[in-house]
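Methods, example record. To illustrate the input and output format used throughout this study, we show the complete record for Polysaccharide biosynthesis protein. The sequence lines were provided to the predictor; the line carrying structure tokens was produced by it.
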Amino acid sequence: MSESQPVELDPGTPEIDLHQVKTRSISGVLALTSRTFLVQVISFIATFFLTVFLSPQDYGTFFLVSAVVNFLTYFSDIGLAAALIQKKDKLTRQDLTTTFTIQQFLVLLLLFLLFANTGFIRSQYQLSSAAIYLMWALGLSLFLSSLKTIPSILLERDLQFNKLVIPQILENLVFNLSAVYFAWKGWGINTFTFAVLARGFTGLIAIYIISPWKPGLGLNRHSLKKLLNFGLPYQANTFLAVIKDDGMTLFLGKLIGQTGLGYIGWASRWANMPLRFFMDNITKVAFPAYARVQHDPQVLKKGIEKTIFYLALVSFPAFVGMAVLALPLVNTIPRYQKWLPALIPLYLYLFNAAWATISTPLTNALNAIGKIKITFKLMIMWTVLTWALMPYLAVKLGFVGVSLAAAIIATSSIIVMYVIYRLVKVNFIQSLLAPTLASFFMGSALLVITPYLTSLPRIIVTIFAGAFIYFVSLYLLQGKQLFLDLKNLIKPNR
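The corresponding predicted structure is encoded as:
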């Protein structure tokens, strides 16, 4: 194959037509959701055991060190990977080798900077030797992850998520199982060091077995120029995101300490758990799918509306249920009362997560249709708000102030809704009304019985009762339309 020859991602099918986009998108969502369900359950259980075996300080240290490496991760790609997925034309070997070469150069440069500045990082955050080893392990995992980029892109662009999900399942299983084992053995922060390395090598081996690609080095100016037209603005958004999130985490480590950071990490992790269950899977499919139908506004509009509806359908009741049952659970589970100070941040992060359920697929859609400059402006807004509010409220209210700032900033998502409405005329009321009202009815019913939730079996029964109340409410609000939507999800019409 010559360097300029298109890479056939779907042998025998020159282009993926509209019906293939729809069917592969839905099957991709189902594959990501169903096949990762077991992994997410294990992750859910693993998080519980890790927060039992590890102290808030150990948990906070993991979040702090992860933020250091995550900060570097965003510089390991200049948006070329996203540009390959978004590209309207077929990919060429030149596109792939150019992306691979630049990414490896950047990753190795960043690893050099990480190791060279170890002493400075250690002194700034008073990190132990174990924390430094964890940082180095995360750095190595960054290199392993960069080697997976091209095989992953080839699967993702072709909407072959039923294959892409396999390495993700394996590496998540390995990480969570090994982390719980080492935490149980009392390894403290070293728990994450070995789990991170095991995950990195597992994922790398698996992706090359499933999506073989012969790595190559080389630069092509024409390919680079075309990819950078989308890649650089996309990466600018990503850079602002890391300044907003991981940069703030590093700054907060100085303001509220590692224990306060542990409370924030615990609250945000649990609050975002429903998003990890559902939103990550849907938005991962939505980006290449939106890109493929960007030429058809009506199809795009319906796709965005259905995405928001299904996300709200599964996420909103989870948020409400967690908010109502959090206090009884913390009081009931042995050795879990140490997380009582984090409950108020949990409630505020759940509010934040509910807004993210809406805003994340919308910014995803803007990127997919090439409106990268708009998302850049939105990211500037969120970055400014984050750095204006979080440090101020952290000084005033400690770690609770951090979560309060996150909740206040989340309401600015209404601006994204306005922008999308101007472009695509999305009907938000139709997509959100039924899940919102049904979740409200469920939460009101659960609040009545919370005083009687004094044991774990009662809480478990209440969870199933809440799910029943939610779906009955949803049926009363939507009637047969609910079953039609679910039928179309499972078996799309041509």
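Annotations derived from this record:
Residues 272-494 form one domain.
The chain has two domains: 10-245, 272-494.
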